[in-house]
Structures
1.
Amino acid sequence: MTDLTADVLVAGGGPAGAWAAIKAAEAGADVVLADKGYLGTSGATASAGTGVWYVEPEPAAREAAMAGREALGGYLADRGWMARVLDQTYANMNELAEVSRYPFPVDGDGRQIRRGLQGPEYMRRMRVRVRRSGVRVLDHSPVTELLADGAGAVAGAAGYRLRDDRPFRVRAGAVVLATGGCAFLSRALGCDVNTGDGALFAAEAGAELSGMEFSNAYAIAPAFTSVTKTAFYSFATFYHADGTVLEGAGSRRGRSVIARTLLSEPVLCRIDRATPEDQRAMRLAQANFFLPFDRQGIDPFTDLFPVTLLAEGTVRGTGGIRITGADCSTTVPGLYAAGDAATRELICGGFTGGGSHNAAWAMSSGTWAGQGAARYAAGLGGRAGARTVHALGEAGVRPEGPAAGGHADYVAAVQAEVLPYDKNLLRHGGRLAPALDVLDRTWRDLRGTLREEGAGVVRARSAAAMTAHARWMYRAALTRTETRGMHKRQDLPDQDPAQHRRLLTGGLDEIWTRPETGAVAS
Amino acid sequence: MIEIVSRGRCIACDKCVDVCPTNVFDRGADGVPVIARQSDCQTCFMCEAYCPVDALFVDPRSHALPEPPDEAALAADGTLGAYRAQIGWGRGRTPGAGRAIGPSLNPAGAPLTS
């Protein structure tokens, strides 16, 4: 057992966790960062890269940036949060340029273009900065449960060191959950570490979730590959197998047409609306977009190739742990949330921010959560390491009955209910309700017996987290009896003015939903 | 998925063991890392990007191939470890991030970067 104490524990080493660790350390906290994989490569950003919602501080540009997506998000975003995210993102991107010397490309006037980040380069430099900040980094050390003190405040976490094959524990004054969203092991690029673990930990501690109905993001990828880079499909035409054009199919608004077609026949694609100049620029901008094509001998600009849609769940959806304070605190004392683990409804409403808004949210919320956690820990006055703590984990680690294995069967059962397009993307109450029934039974079985030994506890907990996530998603999706944002109900295609409010979700054995009280800024 | 760790090129630095986000590799008894849990590979190409001697090959298909591809052929046409060169990592190379200016997605828009 590795037993550490710290002021702040950050769970997760994607951009949100890295920023949280740096900012907590800059605020004077002694910080431990534990990542499921490796700080610098794990998570949805590191292998992919992303646009960033970076807008110069000019009032008209900021106004346009905020107004541009409000309708798309079903008017559930908050102008105050959007404005402060734009401010913080601008500051953090400038830090990347000045402190980390990130090599931003320059335009014809020699000015840096700071609207995007290449994942490997961004996260490699973030790792360097985290380590220079004095943060103790535990790679390959997934957290498996939170610890709480006698009053219910979160007081650290326990997990497993995969490379050393032994458990670890960190007693901490405060914890930042930056563990990412949940993509249900769909093989979407970089997302297999994102199994929704943080939301499970938070719910066990008594935290609430928000926006869980907005969880049906799917990304286009060449069939049987992982590369879910979608921007360049705006230059594509989609086809039936017989070579006729698939009408209405597209990257931005036509994914449901692709999904519907894929239920019964293959969909082919060709990036045939890019000029030779565009094609050259594409290779410079996103080298990884071309890996599947180059390595399978496909010229995507002239050849037809089959595509698929990979589920991104709450990675590119907007739901997650509910934020209740400007410092990204939650309803649980000592617990903070950042990045995709946290709700992004505050800035995206009910429609995915895609990479751009999510990247801005990750660096902003990470900054605030790190600073907030450091402040909270300082307020404990050195008592953090002295508290008596108990572990909060239940499903997958402390079953109600005799322990048995079987995480892979539970994962397969959950995937069967959340990956199919006609259940999650093309939503209908008549299909969501039976799927939720199956998921509830899966949860009861898992809750009763699932427990695996050694490193197996990590897989068991991920299976539990995915099951819980799927149930929160579908319970919320059934409760929102309208179409709003990315939650499109085929049986209820209209937006209902009476449901212009956010929806909170929570619970484990019994899942509840209720409208958020208080007005949504509009 | 990861298909090849080249015995001829590997310098036993264990960088791939360290950086793999899904813990696919184990240290090999003879120094060359072993692909111990291939089914956990998420085809993210990060091990290939980090390998300092271009000893790795990640096939883009997100399932294991029946037989590993032909290493000699991949080495001969420059594909082995090519992702590292494409993102401009390695001694003497310019980071690709600095040249990453893509096309505009619409006529009035700014160029796409990243």
Note: Residues 196 and 469 of chain A are 7 Å apart (CA to CA).
2.
Amino acid sequence: MPEAQGPCPMDPGQMDAALKRLAADLMARLRSEEEVVLLGIRSRGLPLAERLAILLRAATGAQVPVGSLDITLYRDDLTEMVGSPIVRPTEIPFTLKERTVVLVDDVLYTGRTVRAALDALLDHGRPHRVMLLVLADRSGRELPIQADLAGLRVEIPPGHRVAVKLKEIDGEDSVTVEAC
Amino acid sequence: MTAERYVFPHKHLLGIEPLSPQDITALLDQARAFEEVCERPSIKIVPALRKKLVVNLFFENSTRTRNSFEIAEKRLSAEIINFDADTSSLNKGETLIDTAMNLEAMHPDLIVMRHSAPGAHALLARHMKASIVNAGDGAHEHPTQALLDAYTLRKHFGKLEGLRVAIVGDIRNSRVVRSNLWLLTRMGAKVTLVGPPTLVPQEMKATWPSIDISHDFDAVIPKQDAIMMLRAQFERGTGAYIPGQGEYSRFFQLNPARMQRAKKDVVVLHPGPINRGLEITSEVADGPRNLILDQVTNGVPVRMAVLYLLSHPHGEQVP
């Protein structure tokens, strides 16, 4: 796994390669009897989960169900925010019971989004186990949460952010580190 | 994740009249997200209003609206106080302002109020820091009913713009109709008010110039996409405006014979409670074209959306 430095840690080709590697690593981690589902955390986790499902199907022939999770209502700062974050429907058209759920997101930063996602997820059912897969794992954790699988692990200084763009939402694929 | 932010520009929901089409669309869109919460097979509760105190202040009888608000509040994890006017100090002569000042001391975040006096909510809003939600004020407005009606229509037809909606019956005494007129006309629906001349004030055309008024239900029916029947409100004096219930039913009851004249895909709404056999027959109220129970179901996510959007500190506020 590359340790990213510099302003442009992932171009479209590198993102494509990272997702293929993540799909392969995920398959290697799963036991044969496990029924796996992918849950993309809205908004950029969803297209990433859909791409991974295509890669998994190409590799195994198995159709992996994909759902989406909106964590807005579970944010720990929701009641303090000025203005209402827009809530979009969560779509999980399958049972989570006895399934292995792979939570998919673009960036793991403080860990608060993943904490909210776990709360939301458990309100929908009790999975057998939950794994976390992210495209970019950056420094700055505020909660004891870690990714099982990451396409990129990056140490960046405070005052910077990892910006992920995806074709489905932004019209292009890239991961960059930007000052904010 | 994305934390795209929408600032609902109103501190209170006193009526539909102050809402823009954008505000109405935002409320209906948020309700769609809350419908997912209500339909979950497992836990139908989210922590969005955790630590928020909601006071339900009902000075008029209500079962379905009060229950609907209470379910919505519970599904958002709010703390709830139900203030029962029958057993309150109002019976000992306390004024509404005194009640408000006492409630203010409990630091509520939201107050859901039903009151028989139009304007009581605006009065409360001037004396309290909490956001006020109008759950019905006299014959003035019932904004959450109009929002759930609109949500039900939009869900069924996919749009509100261009829909032809007849609102039929006791227009004079209905707060539901006023809220619906603001909402439906603002969203581009074509509304026709139908009822006996004594129950349809002609001056409503001055406020809503785009509406039609008719006293011939049979002539209006074939053109409508939706027929919204209203309850004849005898407790508000409707009996004085009509010769008798039999004649009222003869001309303005929605029954199977009249449904035969309607478009085959027409839908029927009613805010409830229904006077079965008076303004609507059981065959129609329970028939395949009715959306009456859908309205009740949709009331919860719509009220969740209202409470959610009002529960956040706002930027520049307008009433």
Note: The CA atoms of residues 54 and 63 of chain A lie 8 Å apart.
3.
Amino acid sequence: MISKIVKSGLTRRTFLKSTAVTAMSAGLPGASLAAGNTIRIGFLAPLTGAVAAWGKPGLDGCQIWAERVNAAGGIKLSDGSYSVEFVSYDNEYDPAKARTGATKLIREDGVSFIMMLGGDTWPGVQPVADKTGMLFSTLLPSDLSPDTNTLIAPAEVHPIYNVTGVEWLAENKPELKTAVMCAQDDALGLPSVATYLAAFEAAGIEMLDAPLLFDPATTDFAPVVTRLISKDPDIVCLDTCYSDYVHPIAEQLFQQGFKGQIISCTADFYDQMIAKTSEEFMEGFVFQFPDFDDPALNGDNINFTDPNGFYAEFNRRHPGQWGAVSWEYASIMDLWKAAAEKAGSASPDAVAAAMKEGKGKHAFGDADWWGTELFGIDNALVGDWPVVAIEGGKARIKDFRSIPDWYARHGDLLVKHMKAYDQMWDQRS
Amino acid sequence: MPKFLIWIAVLAALVALPHGLSFSQQEILVFLTINVLLVASYRLLTLTGEWSLAHVVIMGVGAYSSALLTKKLGVYVPVSMLLGGVIAALIAVLLSFPLFRMKGFYFLIGSFAAGEIIRLLWKRFRDPFGGAKGIKGIDPMPDFSIGFYQFDFFEPTSYYYFAGVIVAFCLWVLWRIEKSPVGLTFHAVHWQDKLAQASGVNVRAYRTLAFAIASGFAGISGALLAHYVGTINPNAFDIDLMVFVLTWAIVGGTATFYGPILGCVVLTVINEVVLRELGLEQMRPLIYGAIMILSILFLPNGLESIVQKFTKRRAAEGAPERSPAE
């Protein structure tokens, strides 16, 4: 038969062409799924490169979320049920590629909503959001400004939730009186530095030195740690360092004999940190992101469907990959789904309006759309946030604390430090 | 076929090109056009034998200069782009004083260090450079109409035409420079520097000249990028992009004017179109790296050697047969 086809005129060129087309179509399963009752959601985040740890696990979590929602009947809108499908684009944490990705997702893939990590990539996408009116989400509220009202921060309120960890430490370990801090000198590090400074000041904890801002290209943290602990602080604060920094800093603190308290925004892959140091050294390490097998997440206040099951499934599929963002994009999708079903439509305008109506169902409880003072617009969903500590080699939620309550008491301090670091929305260039 | 007809056909194809592409491919086409200027300007620098690792940072100098001129001083965008190129060239002249005291490997490392110093300055001085987050909200090229065509610079097709005209003009200038006595002297500085020096050529002056001209055009490419994306930051001009430029130049080949351009086009299409379309997003770095290594192993003279092979064969086929007596 093959010889017949070849005889009938199948040239090498034709064969190569048809093979290429077949390969292309096999690699594009989404093209055949586009038809029918499917809502497409854009996932525009770094999937490769240095920041992929804050993108890729989020997409993995979203796939689990989509399978669960589709198995349960999909998203119910006024004209019927829709299954949900994620379309991803690797922006490599580059604003130009993020712009291309946003264009593709909106104009070619027909998505109804786009989730982003934010940060350096958002300014590249902002003109696309302005022109198209597409609803975008970011994990970094510092992207928010009155310039774009279609950008929301419904999951993570970085860095303001960091105040809850410091407040909890001050109440539960009052013997800790002094602190030092280090951070990478970038868009994630600086607003977080301002927040921790405000939180320490509010808690009456003295900063022994100005925050040590290191270059993001730093790879040798021995001198950083030596300088940090030279003043014998009670607390070492790692600010919002990337995990590529948190791990070697913790290792250096261990090797240089630090015995005090460590507080950090994240402790992604903390099991690896324990392996590099010791369980004793990591005992009491405070951070802000729980494992979702935590019994405290089974309370009625939690707006995340079956967190324990989600965690178990994620770890089954991606062992050792659980991190801060594994649940966050899925949590945003919970909120988006509820709003779309409430509006009976997936159109960005209708979903945004429904989402911002009344109390928001944040993963860790009811929350308010908030942020005019800090971000110039009420597009951040702010409520309670957990304080997590490592106990016996396992992350455990110690408490939920209210960010708005802290802000009502100490907001002036936060604004003062944010201004000092040029991090208020009207100071950003 | 007469040569001018070939050029008209090429021009027509370039004008029609975006209309056969998807929106995202049009976006990639814009960045590709800008990168063509970047890599072509880099080649001019390599004519003198020096491989700088600061070229992408110099591109950033043009981007930052143009962005700041429009944002802080309200300079008209096309003028600021030109000034971005001029400032990049001037910075290159300043850098040339310490850098051209070195040669070869030392120049390579020195240029990397110089580029990092500039990047650190952008990070350190939030005013005016915006620090680590860079500058956002950069004025776009103002829209205008030429009667039969409305230029809306949010649309990639419009910006492609605009950038295409600028890049084409810059390439023509670069080509003319290469073919001029100055360009021949650049070659001499590379291959016969002692002989050139003995002939009265001021080798250092010519190396500086090549560095400044190449940097000026890199600066223009940076300005084109800044006013399209609307934001720049120090990370946009880091060593990662420099590695890409080196790869384009090496894979394409640097013996001809078109070699690096060919490398840039082919590798960009493979990386940004083919591998993405095949759904291999997360394996792209791996496959891209493998393609790069394989092409270096099996095409040591670059992609240009394939073109040369075919054009020589065609020229040989078209040539009238000559008898041994002739």
Note: Chain A has 17 helices and 17 strands.
